[in-house]
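Dear colleagues,

As part of the handover before I leave the project, I'm documenting each prediction I ran so the next person doesn't have to rerun anything. This entry is a single chain, and its sequence is reproduced below.
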Amino acid sequence: MDKRSVAALKYVGTQRAVRLKKLGIKTVGDLLWYFPRRYEDRRLLKGLATLVPGEKATVRVMIKGWEEREVRPNLRLLRALVEDGEGRGYALWFNQPFVRRRLKLGGEVFLTGKVNYHNFLPEIQVTDYEVAGSGEDGLHAGRIVPFYPLTGGLSQRWLRLIVHQALKETAGKIPEILPPSLCTRYRLIPRCRALEYIHFPPDPAALHQARRRLKYEELLIWELALVLSRREREDGRPGIAHTRDNEMVRRFIAALPFNLTGAQERVLGEILADMEKPRPMARLLQGDVGSGKTVVAAAAMVKAVGGGWQAALMAPTEVLAEQHGRTLHRLLAPLGIPVAVLTGNTPRAEREAILSGLITGRLPLVVGTHTLIQENVDFKALGLVVIDEQHRFGVGQRAALQAKGDAPDLLVMTATPIPRTLALAIYGDLEISLLDEMPPGRQPVTTYVLTEKQRAKAYQLIRKEIARGHQAYVICPLIDESEGIAAEAATAMYQKLKEEVFPEYKIGLLHGRLKPSVKEEVMESFRRGDLAVLVATTVVEVGVDVPNATVMLIEGAERLGLAQLHQLRGRVGRGQDASYCLLMAGNDGAARERLKILATNSDGFAIAEADLRLRGPGEFFGTRQHGLPEFRLASLPDDLRILEHAREDAHRICRENLWQQPEYYGLYLAAKEKMDELKL
């Protein structure tokens, strides 16, 4: 791809190059791969006499006269009388005096804009124009016109112009990276043609062909990067062949106050067998809320520690890290294995002791947040890395923790049920173990979708459960991803419940703006049962385990995705008692119908599939979670069929060592570049 600076293009220059950099465009190649976000079909030219009020239309007219006047302070109207041989009308611009200099009297021009009528004549409020025969090659009219994401100081007209310039300069120079056999099999147009058509399609069919070709290329490179990464890991430096002696694991299981489910036994067998192989394990442990992932991960850590290695578990939040620390301390106490918790707010003296214990090997197991990947955290013999809620970490963070050891085993956990579509795309370099059985005793959670008019009934149910000796959550979700606004909403709700609704009960408040010591004190009070109600943001989404909590009220439930609501709902129903989740939603009928999917379904995977189809992958995990690959064109699950073809082809290419054939070399280089980009 063309590595020249985009500043080398005509019409760009230094200042505009800086603005393009904000869009991620540094080279001419970046510009060619900066695709339009939408298109307008301006091929049909309408006559002035046929224009309809309210429509957006494109016309070819002659400028017959000008009028300019001030409508009000700071608003000047420029009006042109126009004709097309069949009718007359007016073209309007606001605060654009320079247009008069560009469009000459008697000159022909293409105009695009919204139509209104005044004194029986059409008026076009112009949004785009192009001088006929101006040399701009019909970029803005008379064709399917592209529209790009922009930043301040750049215009659509200018961006179209430089993209067109880049296409002209690179014509015949864009290398093909797909072998002829694949292009023939899928009837794909050449790469250079696809780039031309994705920017300036002559018709909808050409645009479809361009998108199909480039989506396949994008997904094939992604899948090849995953397969190559996996192969290099397996063929590269040897991993840790953990001892086949599982005596300590057996002791751990025997000390548990419950029996493992069949699914837990099967998955644990897969993990232990993987750990005994002389190559690094890379496995995803996936299971619905409450399926028992932590116990399985604990057993894997026991195996590592039993063989003289260290284990580290990284969680995305302090609340979850502290929860894991308590759980592991309780589970591993019978074996005498110490557990440390390291977060950004660990007191200095305790932190120094933990760091010393890790580097000397005295401390075999640590739980922490991203603090674990800081430079001053070192291990003597890190043998197993466990990452919880992987989609909240970038791939680079995962790699950074693994780099603390010499090819340690990797176990990734997620409680978010990920549809097969996304699992293929995100975790294609991992083996997948699925916990598809719930432990006995987990209660189904009865879920209701409520309106504001039913709020009194919600409070009545909460009061009824508290009277039975149980506890309740009231959740105030993030608004526009702002923890500050969410904290304010939670604080306001806390005051209302404390003063007006439940003055007779003790109520706690938990949000991300509180000091860690305060958060821990509130959570411990709720665990002990000292608090009847906990008002919180979605900080309690994962990891919080209070079996006595039997009811959860979620405010503004329509703001959250079904998968996240299912996660929150998983905080109740953890004991032997009937439990309830109350979804308080607005009057949006479509949103309420979406929430009813949750009310009638307890299968996390079915809910996740529905959520993915309704909201798309960009919203599936939420904007603050980063595990999802960012494709330029491909969209999941819409392009599942293309993804599956790409996956099959990637595995076949590697299996048959087709890299050795010259026509595959460009594809190999692109996959290696993607691996470097993703730090795979």
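DSSP finds 23 helices and 20 strands in the chain. Confidence is low (pLDDT under 50) at residues 621-627.

All the best with the project,
I.
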